[in-house]
Amino acid sequence: MEEKFKLTLQEDIVKHFSRQALLLSGLLIALFSFFALVPQQYGIYRDSRLISKTYNKFVTHHERLLRDLSQGAIQQYLSDKPVERDVYRDFYSARSSMTVRSNLLVFNAEQDLQLMTDNQLTPLAQSLQLKLVMKQSSDTPIKSTVIIDGEGNHYLAMIAAIKARNRLVGYSVLLINGNDFLTLLKSLDSRYLIFDEYQSPFLSNSDSFMMGSLGKVDETILTKRLIFSKQKAYLSQTSSLAPAMTVTVYRQLLPITAMLIFALCLSASIFAVLLWQSKQLGDKIATKNSVAIETLVSEMEAVSKGEKRSIDLKTEDEFSYLAAQMNQMIQRLYQLSRKALLLEKERQTFERRMLEAQFHPHFLYNTLETILITSQFDPKLTETIVLRLTRLLRYSLNHDHQQETIANDLAIVESYLQINQVRFEELDYQLTYDDNIKEIRIPKLVLLPLVENSIKYGYRYRHDLVIHIHVKKEAGYLWLSVEDNGPGISEARQQQVLANLQTMDSHHGVINSYRRLVHQFHDVELQFNRTGLGFGITFKVREDNGV
């Protein structure tokens, strides 16, 4: 019986190590694959960045050239018919500073060719494709697309519709040959394709993924990171360039057959070594400690499954000491796990509440609508609103400091009120604080939820809303108050807010402000009171707890 049990335990240990061997083999294969792919992926990423940077710089310069010509010499040429050399002079003068050669075509509103810098482009200038794209560009500032001539040359066409006195007078077209742009990217190790929204290639240093008689780009490379084609594997990355243009960068991986053979041989070797080692180790453990190990394994399995919370093993030897130490470790891990879960839950909840305590998103929508309206009749007022909104957003979204001085924080609150005064002309406010407390630090925008509530609920009852904000230090306490001439909060609602102060379930702005103050000062009291103005909410904070 003992020999049978020994053999059984020995087999169990071998099976266990066999599974571990398989897992380790798989892990090593995964690591091999990972380190085989990382250099290639990094090279693709690096080349993609270089292509994007080069192309965007290239497009930006030519868009500027096209825009300047279209709004200057070409517009005058189409409208007033001066001599052509003014257009040529401006074009060649601007093009001389560029590394890639381009050619200019000018058409009138009826798409008749008026001017051309290279007579060899005449067939391309008369193509139906170019005229169709010109028609589509009437409502866009600059439209880019790829056009292929009869000789198979690929051109990037940048088209601008030219208008004078809101009337279309013609089109200007810049044509850039893809072979000219290719010289800027000679140093790249990756293969790449630059093509438009119709999968027409502008530039390519390989034809691996071209298909059809028109030489379109195979759409399968746009959605896959790993591509298998003709018994070859490729790693690719697709990203957007200028409007309606896309770049795909790819590299060929090692041959799939060789990778599979190597991976299988590596896995078999590792598995064989670990299996032999597991048999040797299993025999020794089964011979000397079969009973203790069996008990220890079964107890550990019960603990891992959650059936028990401690190991019950009394062998009066090292295994008993080991079990006791493991029990202590399990208990500490259990306690730490519970604490970590509670802390994480509270942290996430507090962070969410803290963010919610910032200004309401509807304020942004309303402010943007106000900017849209004022921009039509008062640009100076629009500029003032934008500057105040920018200051408010930058202050709110900066999480480097969760506390700020009273002076700085109330200045931001005042910006918020000034923005709202544009929307609500009868809104009035008063903001006061003592000079001796202006450097005291409080949670950022802690009073903003109260001000938001005053505006939100006060305007339901009256349009001549007045808001008073007071901050003072008295008798060892810091008093932060917001009052308005609205109806205030009902007695029942006040009791409900006070009852929810110690819970995390309420999204009320007053409670959020209270909890943020408690997080910093600990000793905070919330007060509701009727004032001469109307209704007020006050936070009373003990000065010696962080103020």
Please sum up the structure shown.
This protein is 51% helix and 21% strand.
Tell me what you see in this structure:
- A hairpin with a 4-residue loop joins strand 8 (210-211) and strand 9 (216-217).
- By secondary structure, the chain is of the alpha+beta class.
- The protein has helices spanning 2-71, 73-80, 85-95, 122-125, 128-136, 178-182, 256-304, 318-356, 361-374, 379-397, 406-423, 448-458, 491-499, 509-521; strands spanning 103-108, 113-116, 143-148, 154-164, 167-177, 191-196, 201-204, 210-211, 216-217, 226-229, 232-240, 245-252, 403-405, 428-433, 441-443, 466-474, 477-484, 524-530, 535-542.
- Strands 2-1-5-4-3 form a five-stranded antiparallel β-sheet, sandwiched between helices. A five-stranded antiparallel β-sheet has the order 7-6-12-11-10. A five-stranded mixed β-sheet has the order 14-16-17-19-18.
- 27% of the residues are buried.
- Helices cover 51% and strands 21% of the residues.
- The protein contains 14 helices and 19 strands.
